[in-house]
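Risk mitigation, structural track. In case the binding assays with magnesium ion fail to produce interpretable data, a predicted complex structure has been prepared as a fallback.
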Amino acid sequence: MSEAAPRRLRQLADVAVSQLRHVGEKRVAALASLGIVDVFDLLTVYPRRYIDRTKRVDLTDLTVGEEAAVYGEVTRSSDRRTKQGKVMVEVIVSDDGGSFKVVFFNQSWRARQLSVGVQALFFGKVTDYKGQRQMTNPVVDVIVGPTGDERDASRVGRVVPIYPASGKAGLTSWEIGGFIEESLRRAGPLLDPVPAHVRTELDLVDRTTSFWGIHLPEDLADVAPARRRLAFDEFLRLQLLLALRRRRLEETSAGVRHPIDEADLDVAPGSLSSPTSSLVRRFLANHHFALTSAQRRVLGEIARDLSSPLPMHRLLQGDVGSGKTVVALTALLASIDGGRQGALMVPTEVLAEQHLASLRRDLAGLVLEDPSVLGGTRPLSIQLLTGRVRAKDRQAVLLALAEGAVDIVVGTHALLTDDVRFRALGVIVIDEQHRFGVEQRAALRDKGRERSYEAADPDLLVMTATPIPRTAAMVVFGDLDRSVLDEMPRGRLAIETTWARDDHEVTDCWRRVRDEVAAGRRVYVICPLVDGSERVEAASAVEERTRLALGELRGLALGLLHGQMKGTEKDEVMAQFRAGEIDVLVATVVIEVGVDVPEASVIVIEDAWRFGLAQLHQLRGRVGRSSVQSYCYVLGAAPSEESALRLQALVDSTDGFALAEIDLDLRGEGTLLGTRQRGRSDLRLASLRRDEDLLLAAQRVASDLVRRDGLSTEPAMVDELRLFVDDEEADYLFKS
Ligand code: ADP
Ligand code: MG
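Fallback model:
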């Protein structure tokens, strides 16, 4: 390796871990099992914490009842069986200041892991056993293995990084630290792709300093600035990729200018319209309610996208019940006004059928000029396309779509499979799809173009009722423009939410159900979530219905809805519920998203702690969809503090955005980013909550760099980004 040029991250990724001094075949395999293949992977495994060996905790100082982290060497290790037959491993840990006992129950492997001579960090609560202090089943980080050659005198007496070592892979934190140290020393200075003026402005340390500071700090004070810089890099890379995707999209897209006149959005119900007015105008003039001002504003934003030559790529966030459907419909009609078609995609078949019915109802009476039919006009054609549609009907719909005889198609994502062809697809709306990642959206857009005989990119509107915090939206939906429906239709009363814990409260809940049914309303009862098994879940729903029918809800008409039922059965039940032939629908979470039955005024959620906060809020949104008072009951105790906080939050607030922030706090961010492509591009150090300022800075820097010249004057940055995308995407993003 020559001294000359500072090294790039991509060069580090070209060096296999097997090239390190102490890494033989066995360790290559062990590292690979942790996802570490090359030196770059290794350098981005960050310490979980540090122990400052210059300031040792004196073992004689430990306080009973408190948590402590204790570092020491195993001086004795034994295992035996207790009278109850449990395996008990007993270890004596010593340092200069004394010794201390650690016991493990039912962890027989600890005897092997903690043999005499091993140095480890023990983290747990200090207890008292017959007058002696000890720890029971603490968290253990093995720092130095039992064989002498792993000890390196130069690494004692400093700040020691603790890596997420894995007992299973058989690697100690100390070994990992050794590999990293060797890598850093041999790599020498690292090239910094972030322009110096940006670093100065944001007070960021340079790249070499950041890697040394996080892995080999001289002093604990080195860690924070190092972490800050590395976190910034994580955000910057993500934001650069998003900005580049956007720029490419704009350069390569062949969008459609849809004819939409903003003045048409201002017509109130009952206004005049003529048969020659646009469909948008005729629709709004004949609709049964006036738009809220939020709906009007959002439609304005959408109309500007639709009429511009760039394809729309917009996210519409609006809490449950805020009225997203009418917005979507208007966008679809604009496409038809331009002689094109529209597609509405939803996540489930139940929802597709519900939308089909409500669209047909809302759009009834609208006619389209069509010189090929007698009389010159025909009604709008709205059709369904899901996996459930029978082959013969499906063929008919496919043919009509290709000919342009279908105006709006509603379906699940079976809509964009290979045999589907549109004559000219103008607008795609995706409803309730908060679980789509960036890559899937890009694929969808491409498919939209491929599926259409007209070589143009359809406009895309993605709608979600799961409000996500702004910072998370910047990462997960950073490639989309965003609109927010932040106002509920007038006359809505806040849903009254009760957490019914004791028998008395539960009795009140079922009394309320009977009262509401007597007043002509409808009720959902949501059965407990059963992990991973729709079958068991269905069985429990069947049981619960029987129990209620014989007990608390005797005499009411109870229906059943679960994921194991056939499509036609589900439709039948939903139709009966809508029509009021069923009073109470006992259901599994199949009704989670989007179901709209305005007469429903009570939802009872059993074993509510099993649901996430966002899901509970979604479920609650099934009621409160008209001007009558609605109620939500969450039943059951909360087995953990976290679940209690969740249920209390639901009781305290009906604001989806506030709940989303709480959810992020309670669950951490992993779950939020779960849909994003896993692997290198993950946020390892950066936190959406703690590092909001860094995220905003990264977004600004990324858009400046990309806007100027698409990164063509930043070759080092481009080189680095190639590490985080596959070849195909790199070709797309970086070709000049
Ligand atoms: P979501 O955003 O959850 O999809 P919907 O579009 O289903 O909400 O609307 C919820 C309910 O509110 C529906 O019954 C709908 O007809 C009604 N609604 C929507 N917008 C308005 C409005 N501007 N005025 C009165 N009712 C409205
Ligand atoms: Mg909806």
